[in-house]
């Protein structure tokens, strides 16, 4: 059985990784006024941050239309694929996964298995990369899905934002009332829980937030088992690089990546966001 792997643009996988592993991309979009840009296609992350600085109002975001999924799945069937595993950002913050489910029922002669990563960014990218490696090795869709469920058991991700207002305004932060109120300069740690973004701990400074993420990471990293991890940043490449180098020196048994919050997710987390995700390969 020939299985294709699809993911959406919010996995923020580098183009060379997608090409090497044969991962197909379906983009989400950011909308500035009347102009729509498909991230990773019409607009790079650097272009996004430059445009945000020039634009008076923040952009909005939109998921792919069901028709775009139908077109992609139909093309994959024509290429000779028997099955598609379509891996998407959390259904708790976007309708993208549901769009894949719906489109899957509209394409005959192709088995479509939509998968809810229940997260986003490089954490979602890890699912897509593992799935693609297994598909290239000829594993069945059932085996791939079983492995993705296994990853879900060990995958962790924590991030902080410079300004909670973006997440609040976009309606992407759940249970945050305790953090708002007053003019506290807090840098709350956030995570995905039950498919939505929730506050994890209240922390006063960026430095302390980074230290707390390191402590959470150490709980797994100090066991000495192999891990894959990614530092994820919103337009903070130098800080992300330094942090990766420090962690890499401390934990040589962990394979580290640097990734980023691209346009769609950066619209909600804002510039300056920083996170760490990891799992047991």
TrEMBL record:
Sorted alphabetically, which SUPFAM superfamilies does this protein's record hold?
Answer: DAK1/DegV-like (SSF82549)
Keyword field contains Nucleotide-binding:
no
Domain of life according to the entry: Bacteria
Query: Could you tell me the keywords of this UniProt record?
Result: Lipid-binding
GO MF terms on file?
lipid binding
Database matches in InterPro entries: DegV, DegV_C, DegV_domain_contain
Which Pfam families would you find in this protein's record?
DegV
In Swiss-Prot or TrEMBL terms, this protein is called: DegV family protein
Which species does the entry assign this protein to?
Geobacillus thermodenitrificans (strain NG80-2)
């Amino acid at each position: 059985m020939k299985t294709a792997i699809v993911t959406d643009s919010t996995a923020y996988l580098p183009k060379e990784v997608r090409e090497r592993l044969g991962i197909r991309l379906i983009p989400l979009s950011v909308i500035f006024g009347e102009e729509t840009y498909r991230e990773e296609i019409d607009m790079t992350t650097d272009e996004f941050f430059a445009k945000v600085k020039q634009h008076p109002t923040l952009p909005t975001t939109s998921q792919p239309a069901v028709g775009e999924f139908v077109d992609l799945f139909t093309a994959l069937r024509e290429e000779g694929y028997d099955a598609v595993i379509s891996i998407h950002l959390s259904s708790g913050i976007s309708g993208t996964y549901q769009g894949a489910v719906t489109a899957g029922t509209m394409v005959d002669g192709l088995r479509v298995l939509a998968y809810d990563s229940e997260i986003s960014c490089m954490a979602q990218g890890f699912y897509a990369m593992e799935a693609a490696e297994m598909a290239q090795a000829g594993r069945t869709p059932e085996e791939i899905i079983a492995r993705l469920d296994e990853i879900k058991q060990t995958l962790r991700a924590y991030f902080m934002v410079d300004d909670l207002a973006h997440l609040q305004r976009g309606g992407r932060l759940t249970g945050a009332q305790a953090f708002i109120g007053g003019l506290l300069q807090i840098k709350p740690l956030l995570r995905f829980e039950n498919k939505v973004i929730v506050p994890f701990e209240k922390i006063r400074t960026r430095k302390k937030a980074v230290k707390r993420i390191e402590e959470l990471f150490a709980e797994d990293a100090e066991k000495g088992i192999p891990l894959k991890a990614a530092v994820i940043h919103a337009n903070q490449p130098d800080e992300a690089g330094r942090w990766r180098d420090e962690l890499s020196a401390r934990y040589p048994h962990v394979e580290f990546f640097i990734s980023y919050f691209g346009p769609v997710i950066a619209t909600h987390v804002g510039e300056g966001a920083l996170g760490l995700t990891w799992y047991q390969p």
